[in-house]
Amino acid sequence: MDVRYTVGKNEYKRMTTDELREAFLVDLFEAGKLTLLYCEVERAITGAAVPTGCALKLEAGKELAADFFCQRREVGVLNIGGTGTVTVDGAEYAMENLDGLYIGRGSKDISFTSTDAANPARFYLISYPAHTEYPTTLAKKADANALELGTVEDSNKRTIYQYIHENGIKSCQLVMGFTALEQGSVWNTMPCHTHERRTEVYMYFNLDENSRVFHMMGPGDETRHLVVGNEQAVISPMWSIHSGCGTQAYTFCWGMGGENQRFDDMDHIQVGDLK
Predict the structure, then answer these.
(1) In whole angstroms, what is the distance from residue 81 CA to residue 95 CA?
(2) 3-class secondary-structure state, position 59
(3) 47/36 Cα distance (integer angstroms)
(4) Enclosing domain of residue 129
């Protein structure tokens, strides 16, 4: 498990492009492996599992000083690849493309497999500390709370699929879902916002090899951008906006943790106030 120490907004102002990418951009997906990144911001862990042979097991590692990964944690999973199975303490959860799964605190044995190694599942993981136990629950796309937002005229027509949230699958602090932009739309989360009470991780996917998302970040009065490719994630501290404009339509998974689970708890910034 890699460990990432993020930076404050004062240090951020003096960083080069390479330094920003090193601090906030995350590569996770690797065939046949389970990779994890531990971030000091809200003690979030983000990761990916791409099983192409034997099952990949989710283990705590010395960084957590725990007997097993979910001893004091909860996990959200989104499958962005082929069909696969997540096994939690002997219970098997078959997951098709864009299915989600909440894994509750206290779950001991967690593993990931693919139905077809030639078209493997690609499991994205986001985890936060948990203070109590909620049941492990499978989320199908058809059962998600779907919110249609934006317009073609504003190039931001999109559907937000909420899986783990205060009115959906129960969790301690984790909030997770994904947003899919329609063809011809390229903007997400603009007008933008911050939320001082939570941090967030975006993971962009469904991008062509030569397409990119220009992810806007930083305080509203001193913005920067990261050029993000397919299946890369961006860590957004509480002081940073998080918005993107792509060279094509795309999808992204969002995961949050912090003081509350209110999806609408945002400090909005008007476009005209950005610098």
Answers:
(1) 10
(2) coil
(3) 4
(4) 2-273
- What global pTM score does this model have? 0.93
The first and second tokens of residue 190, run together, are 């603009």
Q: What is the pLDDT of residues 7-48, one digit of tens each?
A: 888 899 999 999 999 999 999 999 999 999 998 777 899 999
Task: Give me the sign of the Cα torsion angle 168, 169, 174, 180.
Answer: negative
For the chain, the distance separating the N- and C-terminal CA atoms, rounded to the nearest angstrom, is 36
DSSP string, 147-197: EEE--TTTT--EEEEEEESTTSB--SS-EEEEEEEPTT--EES-SEEE-TT
Percent of the chain with pLDDT over 90: 69
Contact 244, 229 (CB under 8 A): no
CA 125 and chain centroid, separation:
7
Among candidate residues 29, 28, 92, the one with its CA nearest the CA of residue 55: 92
- What is the domain-level CATH number for residue 72? 2.60.120.10
